[in-house]
Amino acid sequence: MNKISYLAVAISAATLMGCNSSSSSNDDNSSPQLSTYTVIDGYIHNAVICARESIEQTCVFTTTTDSKGQFELPAEYAELLVTADVVGGLSSDSDTVGLSS
Q: If 0-12 CB within 10 Å is exposed, 13-18 middle and 19+ buried, where does residue 35 land?
């Protein structure tokens, strides 16, 4: 069975850094506003990102982190609880060799 560690991803936490990746041009209103965040302890690759109202609820938005631990979060989910699930056998930490266990 894969061991799952839950990391609360908070904008002010040291484990998450955000950059507003939206364009300064407002010509195209059809593009969603996205912000880019990074999950770190070393960069965490393939962490499963989940946005939801509370920890007991199901995810309304999910994605995974790239090789630099980054993911994009649409603005509509920015006020929700966002967690990064580090999944054993799937996620990897750039500080260590191999997959998380």
A: middle
Residue 95 · residue 42 · CB < 8 Å: yes
Tell me the residue range of the domain where 56 lies: 4-22+33-88
How many helices (H) and strands (E) in the chain?
A: 0, 9
**pLDDT for the residue 100:** 66
Does 101 map to a domain?
no
Count of domains for the chain: 1
Per residue in 56-95, pLDDT (tens digit) is 999 999 999 999 999 999 999 999 999 999 999 999 999 8
Quote the longest CA-to-CA distance of the chain.
49
Where residue 23 falls among pLDDT bands split at 50, 70, 90?
Answer: very low
Q: What residues have CB less than 8 Å from 38, skipping those under 6 apart?
A: 16, 17, 18, 65, 68, 69, 70
Whether 28 maps to a domain, the answer reads no
